[in-house]
Every structure is written in C-alpha cells, then in structure tokens.
Amino acid sequence: MNNISKLINSGKTIFTKNDIRKILDFSTNFALDKFLQRTSENWILINLYYWIYWFKKYNIYEFACKLKKTSYISFETVLQREWIVFQDYSSTIFLASDDTFEKEVHWKIFKFNKLKSSILLNPLWIEYRENYMIASKERAVCDRIYLSKNYYFDNLESINLEKLEEISQIYNKRVILEIKKLIKNVKQG
Q: Which end of the chain is more exposed for a tag (fewer CB within 10 A), N or C?
C-alpha cells in the first residue's frame, strides 16, 4: 500500500505533521518533509494552516478540533445546527476550550471559549465523531448558559429535559438554577 492510500485509509481528512509521521512511520524529519513537499506540489495534501495538512475535501469540525487539542464543538455551532437558535452563525465555528481566543483561517472564524477544566474534561454528553468531538444540544445549552447569563434560546422543543437537568449538575449553582427555571418555562409552554 502506498503512502497516500495509508493516509486515506486512516479515516482522517486533517493531519498534523506528527499524525503523518505516525501513520506512515517516517524515521527522519527529512523524509517526512520531502513527502510533504511532493504531495503539496501535486495538490494531493495541502498545507492548510502552519503544521496542519488536508486533502481537498476535509471536515471543518475535524480541522477546528485540530487547532486546539483540548476542545470540542459546542455553543452556537451546535445550537444553530439543532435549530435551537435561528441566527446565522455559519461563518464562525464555536468551541469549548481551556483558553479563550479566535483564529481566522480560510474565511472562517474559529472562536474558542474557555470553560473550567472540571467542565471541559467531563465527557458527559460529548460525542466522538469522525475524528472530532461535539457537544449534544443539551450540553451546548449548558455551555452557553455557563458563559452567558440569561441567554435567549429561540426553540427548545427538541431538548431532552431530563438530559438537560443531568448535564447541568457538572456546572456551578447559577447554571443549575437557570436550567431549572428554563425547564419550568418549557413545561409551562
């Protein structure tokens, strides 16, 4: 099997230099750099951002999570996708992280929002998909409330209220109380 086939069969669409080294078992940096130079010249593997390479078709969420190792997709990215908020946030990917910062790459803004470590590293209702992690809609609601007191959600009909209450327990008292209030309002219509 040739090197390109090995990369394709890895199931990834985004690679760091270290990923490529491990998958292809390059013993020297020189050999790895030559491989990357050849594949870049032939438009097979493209340097997307500093040390991150991609095939022509790549998963934007996988790329977002590669920008910051300790992160997962959440907030308005999940809320818009699940029709919980109706505003258009398509030009921005929101992530939970251990740091707050923004990066703009290829006409997309990647907005990382800092969560306390005990929340960020808790895997409750975070799903691992196709080489990236993403919050459930209930987890995204809690993440947003944690950072934005009294946040307005357009449509909470699809939310699992039991799951929402369960997830709220990993946050602070303010979030727990706000979630209880939100659940009460949803039940009252």
A: C
